[in-house]
Structures are given as structure tokens and as C-alpha cells.
Amino acid sequence: MALPKTFSSGERLFASDLNGNFEDLDTRLGTIDLEDLANVSGSATDGQVLAYDNGTSTWNPTDGGVIIAVKSALFTGTQTNSTAAGADFAITDLTITHEVADASNKLILMATCGVLASSVGTLESGIAFHDGSSLIGIGTAAGNRTSVSTGGLGKESGAGNGISGAPHAFTLVHTPGTGSKTYTVRAFNTFSSTQTIYVNRTPTDTDNVRFVRGASSFVLMEVKV
To answer: Any long-range contacts for 137-143 (C-beta under 8 Å, 24+ apart)?
Structure first.
């Protein structure tokens, strides 16, 4: 893998800390010129990093923990869905198709629902991930209770407009398997009868600053182990 520029011996390598303070790496590491980093031996493959040692730069395998792929999805519109008790539906646009580079790698899934509400007026909703075959990262089954990644039940005395939430879900997929899979974020009705579930909006949607519109997002990261 060739670097995009050949450096002369008069050019120097600098590093910056989080406060924006720059330091000449020659001061810390001895005599290192950028021309040394231009003399890279070999070619990079997936999962390798560039290592420098006394004038020689080589590509070395990592010990894991490296993010090798990031994908994201965003939904800024609104969605309403008449949903049976305990049932779920896919949130618009929060879909990612991915195939891991190695079956031993892990996936980190993260989702945020900007606004989630139910027509029953007491929140009673939740979200979870689906891998195309089944729900993942959900609570253990317990009788008739609804298993979700995150959800809630709220109650406000005399609430005229109901309660809305903004759930966040995170999960680690330990064994993503092989082949392409389509991951979705799904919303649940956790009330005991059919209700309308609202995404990115409140049940009452009057054109007034009191009522909000949200954005929902989904991020997938593949991590080499």
C-alpha cells in the first residue's frame, strides 16, 4: 500500500492531544522523519495496522477490538401503526443489511427512537432488534409479559395528551453467523389491546411548540476479535 505522498527528510511528524497541543514526535521518539513512514514494506489486508520500528514501517495483524465496518440508518419522518396487543412492526427506514467479514467477529447494534408513544396514553410501548429470523437482545420470556430490548409503562393522572418516551437500545451479537442478514428496529405495543403506536411524534400532534417531532436512528458496527 503506497502512501499518497513522498516526504522529504526536512518534514517532520507531529501529534496532537485532545487539547489541541502539538508535539514534534522526534522529541519523544528520537529521530523520526516522515520519509521513514513512506518506506512501508508489504501491502495491507483487512484487520492490519501500520507499525513503525527504527526506520521500518510494516503492516501487522491486530489483536482484535478493531472496528472494521460501520453502517447507519436514519428516519426523520413520522409513522403510525395500528398494532395488536404484544405485537410489533418494523420502524420505517431503520433497516441495515450486512454480512460479517469473519464469522468470529461481533456486531454492536445501537438504536434510538426519537419519540415513541401509544394511543392508550400511558406510554406502554418498546423497541427491539430483529435479525431477519428472530428478535435479538430482548428480555427473558416470562408468562404473558412482552419481551423487548427497552420499553416502559407510564401513568399520569388526567393526562390529556398521553405520555411519550425516547427509548434507546444497545446489544452485542456474539454469533452473527455467515451470509448476508437484514437487521431491523421494531416497535411494540405492550398494552393489553390493539393500540396505535406513534414513532417520531406524539399522539396529539397540534401545530404548537409544545408538541415535538423526533428523529430515529440505527447504527451497526462490526468488531474484529
So the answer is: 137/109, 137/169, 137/170, 137/171, 137/172, 137/173
Spatial distance between the Cα atoms of 148 and 88, rounded to a whole number of angstroms: 10
Sequence-separated (6 or more) residues with CB below 8 Å from residue 200: 75, 76, 77, 78, 79, 113, 114, 115, 213, 214, 215, 216
Q: Could you report the per-residue pLDDT of 10-54, keeping only the tens digit for each?
A: 444 444 444 555 555 445 444 445 555 556 666 666 556 666 565
91 close to 125: Cβ distance less than 8 angstroms: no
Rounded to two decimals, the pTM is 0.72
Q: What is the pLDDT of residues 72-114, one digit of tens each?
A: 999 999 999 999 999 999 999 999 999 999 999 999 999 999 9
Cell numbers placing 36:
521513514
Distance of alpha carbon 157 from alpha carbon 14, whole angstroms: 61
Q: Which residue blocks in the chain are alpha helix, DSSP H?
A: 25-29, 34-38
- Report the 10 Å Cβ neighbour count for 123: 23
Amino acid present at 59: W
Single-letter amino acid, residue 192? S
